């Protein structure tokens, strides 16, 4: 490894000397990659330089040190300042570690600490003396592997090692949860969202498990606008079978809904009735007229803050706060507060005047036509109606009821 690295740097220097503008200029950082020749290179840039200078067909096999390579102590000294998966300056500022080894600077000591996941600490500045190889571990803990994850997203071998770190290298660190730290809880660094490293898994409507609600919201704003939380906890394998809640074409045959919203066609309105706007019906065909403002005039008299403290109405709709719900109640008699917090996402409760929630169905819109000539959002909704409101109701065919179906019934 030592000779290959020096050869690579020599080749790079030779190439640099031949031309004014060298084909590659590499920063002296340690971001190791394993080449297809089984050798570890300090960075991908160095690998490419060696490839160019030696005219070798070398590719990056994977990120990190080649797994079969081991370094002797004297070899490590040849690449002083390049240790671990960290980026360290090649500054010589020797420090002595609690393992009795001398490190080129504090950064390389920290790299060694995280690479080994050990409790290595700096004992003093300057090189270790020969008798310092007998240092004892600053923590009197056994090595029983009963891992805990600390609030700094570092896995400790057991609780004793974490408590020791609290009084040595990581003041204030506490137990986040038992077990090894999970990769899922890493901050989202590739986008504009930053979430706490808190593990509170939730299942998204795309069938993926997110480490907490914040990471789900980040995904929603980073390219998944229709993403919603289905339930707390990880997704079940069957959750990957979620379908698009609306199977509608974009043909423009507008209808005006009772919520005074124009829908591009009847299918989109019926989909909204089972997803975002429970209870909405067709007011008339065509686009909504500007002069019809009854509901908006009522809501205009309500002044509410934009504070987000969601509440659930008895219509199954989530309102941003109690004030907005009360405004809605003024235009929708019979509507009441069901409970504080969001309504159950992903499931639609089917209500009757006498029975509340006799069954619950997913809000996927796969319309079917019932024997009463009405279109139901999906087979489950039809079965619920058969159990509660329309005894003897049966499925006639898949898809929305047509005018011929209505005339027949």
From TrEMBL:
This protein's GO CC annotations: extracellular region
Sequence ranges assigned to domain Kazal-like in this UniProt record: 18-68, 80-130, 133-183, 187-225, 229-290, 296-345, 353-403
Keyword Nucleotide-binding: no
Gene Ontology terms, MF aspect: serine-type endopeptidase inhibitor activity
Coiled coil stretches, renumbered: none
Keywords: Disulfide bond, Protease inhibitor, Repeat, Secreted, Serine protease inhibitor, Signal
Cleaved signal peptide residues: 1-17
Source taxon at top rank: Eukaryota
The keyword rRNA-binding is assigned to this record: no
Subcellular compartments: Secreted
Protein name: Infestin 1-7
Species assigned in the record: Triatoma infestans
């Amino acid at each position: 490894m030592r000779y290959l690295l020096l050869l690579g740097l020599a080749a790079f220097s030779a190439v640099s000397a031949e031309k004014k503008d060298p084909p590659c200029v590499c920063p002296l950082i340690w971001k190791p990659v394993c080449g297809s020749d089984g050798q570890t290179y300090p960075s991908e840039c160095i690998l490419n330089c060696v490839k160019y200078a030696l005219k070798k067909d070398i590719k990056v096999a994977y990120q990190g040190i080649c797994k079969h390579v081991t370094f002797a102590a004297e070899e490590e000294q040849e690449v002083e300042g390049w240790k671990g998966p960290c980026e360290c300056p090649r500054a010589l500022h020797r420090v002595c570690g609690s393992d009795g080894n001398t490190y080129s600077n504090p950064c390389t000591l920290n790299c060694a600490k995280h690479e080994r996941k050990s409790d290595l600490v700096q004992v003093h500045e300057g090189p270790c003396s020969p008798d310092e190889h007998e240092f004892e571990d600053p923590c009197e803990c056994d090595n029983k592997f009963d891992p805990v994850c600390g609030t700094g997203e570092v896995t400790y071998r057991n609780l004793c090692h974490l408590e020791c770190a609290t009084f040595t290298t990581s003041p204030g660190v506490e137990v986040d949860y038992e077990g090894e730290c999970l990769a899922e809880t890493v901050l989202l660094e590739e986008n504009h969202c930053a979430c706490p490293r808190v593990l509170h898994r939730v299942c998204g409507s795309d069938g993926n498990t997110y480490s907490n609600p914040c990471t789900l919201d980040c995904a929603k704003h980073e390219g998944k606008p229709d993403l919603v939380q289905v339930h707390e906890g990880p997704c079940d394998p069957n959750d990957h079978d979620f379908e698009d809640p609306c199977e509608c074409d974009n043909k423009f045959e507008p209808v005006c809904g009772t919520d005074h919203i124009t829908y591009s066609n009847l299918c989109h309105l019926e989909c909204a009735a089972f997803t975002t706007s429970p209870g909405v019906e067709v007011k008339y065909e065509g686009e909504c007229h500007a002069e019809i403002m009854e509901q908006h005039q009522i809501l205009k008299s309500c002044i509410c803050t934009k504070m987000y403290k969601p509440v659930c109405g008895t219509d199954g709709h989530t309102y941003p706060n109690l004030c907005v719900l009360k405004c809605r109640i003024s235009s929708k008699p019979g509507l009441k507060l069901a409970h504080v917090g969001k309504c159950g996402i992903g499931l639609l409760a089917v209500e009757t005047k006498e029975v509340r929630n006799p069954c619950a169905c997913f809000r996927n819109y796969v319309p079917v036509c019932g024997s009463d000539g009405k279109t139901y959002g999906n087979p489950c909704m039809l079965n619920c109606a058969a159990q509660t409101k329309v005894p003897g109701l049966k499925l006639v065919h898949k898809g929305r009821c047509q005018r011929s179906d209505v005339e027949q019934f």
